[in-house]
Every structure is written in C-alpha cells, then in structure tokens.
Specification:
It contains four helices and no strands. It is mainly α and 197 residues long. GO terms for molecular function: ATP binding; zinc ion binding.
C-alpha cells in the first residue's frame, strides 16, 4: 500500500514501527535526537519536547492519511505479533527436541550402564565359578593324596604285621623243634645205660 507524503512527525512514527512509540516519552526523545537544531542542554525537563510531541499529534490528527498510518501501524503490530508467535513456536519445538535428545542420551547412558553391569556380573560369576572349580579340584587332589598315603600306610602296616606274624611263627616252629630235640635227647639219655664194667 502506498504511503502518502507525511510530515516529519508521521515519518518518524512510521520509521519506529509497530506504533509502540506513538508520542511516548521515549518516542519524543528519539525525535529530539533526530533534530539537528536541538541545543545541548542539561538533564532538566525540556518543555520543547512536549510541545513537539503535541504538535506531531495535531499533525497526525489533522492529516487525511491518519487512519491509513494507524491502520498500517496496526498491521505492522499484528505482523510482529505473528512473527513472535512463530519464533516462540520455533523455540518451543527446539526446546522439545533438546529435551527429547537429552532423554535419548540419558536412556542410552542407562542402557550402556546396564549392559556393562550385566557384563561385569557375568564376568564375576564366571570368575567365581572357575575359582570354585579350582578349589574343588585342589580338594580332590588333596583327598586323593591322603587316600594314597592311607593305602600306603595300610599296606606298610599289613606288611609289618605279616612279617611279625612270620617271625613269631618261625620262632614258635624253632621252639617246637628245639623242644622236640630236647625231648628226644632226654629220651635217649633215659634209655641209654652205660655198660657194666
């Protein structure tokens, strides 16, 4: 839409956009900065700025294009609000995507930790099982050695007992033979008589 030629106050208002600075103190201050004829003054109240604002308002109200300017500023404000909503929706979508990504990373970290924990437990169980098997094999070997020693001891004891039995039996046999011989000797001695001279 073509904007008709306006006074300096209207051009300033349109350049500010969105109609938010319509004769506000900030808008008047901006208009003062745009005026090169403005003299440097201290921080005191400047009534000229208020007068210029009132003059600009009168120019706008008396202009045949005032409604067009106000309509244009309203349209600009609506456009700006729509842009802000689009921007807000975009930031909301980005925040949702970031939250979703954070949840995905957290889930992956938990899943990885669970896998590592399961692997660690499996390794520990395997180590304990291997340790138990080694302990059992060692105990079996010790038992086998003890059994072998016991068998050997029993064999040695049996051999000693058999040797002792044989010795005693031989001794008994020897004593019997000696007794028999003595008996025979006695009998011979009794039966023998010396010749008479």
């Amino acid at each position: 839409m073509a904007v008709p030629k306006l006074g300096s106050a209207m051009r300033f208002l349109m350049a500010g956009g969105a109609g938010a600075v319509l004769l506000s103190p900030a808008g008047v201050a901006l208009a003062d900065k745009a005026d090169p004829k403005k003299k440097e003054q201290g921080p005191l109240f400047d009534p000229e700025a208020l007068e210029r604002g009132a003059k600009a308002l009168r120019e706008i109200n008396s202009s045949p294009h005032a409604k067009q300017v106000i309509q244009l500023t309203r349209e600009q404000e609506v456009t700006k609000q729509q842009e802000l909503k689009v921007e807000e929706a975009k930031y909301g979508a980005q925040a949702a995507a970031a939250a979703q990504e954070q949840e995905r990373v957290r889930w992956e970290a938990q899943s990885k930790y669970a896998q590592e924990e399961a692997q660690r437990k499996a390794q520990l169980a395997q180590y304990n099982d291997e340790l138990a098997r080694k302990r059992q094999a060692h105990e079996h070997e010790l038992q086998r050695q003890r059994n072998a020693e016991l068998v050997q001891l029993q064999a040695e004891t049996a051999a000693r007992q058999e040797a002792e039995r044989l010795r005693i039996e031989q001794q008994i046999q020897a004593e019997r033979r000696a007794a028999e011989q003595y008996k025979l000797w006695r009998l011979r001695r009794v039966d023998w008589q010396p010749p008479f001279l």
